[in-house]
Amino acid sequence: MSDEAPPEPDRQDGAPHPRDTQQIFGHANAEATLLDAYNAGRMHHAWLISGPRGVGKATLAWRFARFLLATPMADSGGMFAAPQPDSLDISGDHPVARRMLAMSEPGLFLLRRPWDDKLKRHKTELTVDEVRGLKSFFQMSAGGNGRRVVIVDSADDMNRNAANALLKELEEPPKNATLILISHQPSGLLPTIRSRCRSLRLGALSSDDLARALDQAGVQPPTDANMAELAGGSVGEAVRLAALDGPKLYADLVALFSDLPRMDRGRAGRLADACVGRGAEPRFDLTLSLLDRILSRLALTGTVGTPPSEIVNGEARMLLRLSPTPHAARNWADTAQGLTARARRGKAVNLDPAALVFDMFLSLERTAVGAAA
Fold first, then answer.
1. 122 three-class SS
2. What is the pTM assigned to this prediction?
3. d(CA 332, CA 322)
């Protein structure tokens, strides 16, 4: 049996874990909201940090947790108490920071999808057994500055039983405990969970902030501003695109769309075959993601009458030709919805990725024929 630690489900391949990231870019307002609540003594017991994937939600959660666990309680020093903090910065040399890096901080509890030793992969859901661990965590004597912090990354992964178990903790939070929930799609959470959290939504990063965040992560920032747009202001997506040669894949998909309504079967077959084989699952997922991006841009083009900024040369012409009217836009939007459902079903039953992708290409061809008619 290998002693190698399993991969972490809350870490993007090719990038450091959010706990290793000291600085955060593009979210000064969110940081100010957290700091103001702390200094004003209006700290909510639960925060829901939401927004697109990869924009820094987990980095902010870990940064805030580090601040809470390393900062003395406001009333702990009397007349000799330290002045109010003016930032969330905590030195990397602070004992709390070092313990958090080592995952040995007793005041922190991390909820995330567990590793399945038998199947050698992460479970697809965050289960109730993990959430039940909060009871023993909250029953332990508080150390350090007396605080306890829970990070849930991500709350979207909880199944129904886990969500109900977490709701009980939100309804009766222990003293000096703060729960930080991370969500990519908060609308999918139980309304009762959302209502018991203070919401903090993060937006996409600007090109400059994205470049700085990638530089901090040790990833070569995209030199083409249009490729930065392909990442959608997401550091995580930019890392994935860089690792999987995403810009070239997107260009190949745009070329496939440009041939419609007469699809190049050879090109389609090569793109589908690239999704098969050992280690090809990330490529398969990226192909589905970029297909959805193009379909969304087609729907937008037909709706507003003008295409968005080109990501690759010739894309604007393709978008206008295939989606010239609101009616065509609706057809592309319906196709996108149908393909998303088909992809979800196909992955659930382990359908051959190449067959699934090629079948999706045939659906695109039929929609394009209808648009041309």
1. strand
2. 0.83
3. 9
Higher pLDDT residue, 72 or 155?
Answer: 155
Contacts of 62 (CB under 8 A, 6+ apart): 18, 19, 21, 100, 151
Between CA 305 and CA 146 the distance in angstroms is: 58
The token pair that represents 224 in the structure block: 């083409």
Closest CA to 338 of 322, 362, 316, 315: 362
**Class at the top of the CATH hierarchy for domain 18-201:** alpha beta
DSSP states along 134-185? HHHHHHSPP-TTS-EEEEEETGGGB-HHHHHHHHHHHHSPPTTEEEEEEES-
- Rounded Cα distance, 373 and 90, in Å: 62
For 250, phi and psi rounded to 5 degrees?
Answer: -65, -40
Which two tokens mark 240?
Answer: 């994935």
Query: Which amino acid is it at 356?
Result: L
User: What does the pLDDT look like over 272-293, one tens digit per residue?
Assistant: 999 998 888 889 999 999 999 9
Rounded Cα distance between 199 and 12, Å, is 24
Q: How does DSSP classify residue 126? A: B
Phi, psi of 198 (to 5 degrees): -85, 125
Average pLDDT of the chain to the nearest whole number:
89
Extents of the domains making up the chain: 18-201, 244-372
Three-state DSSP state, 337: helix
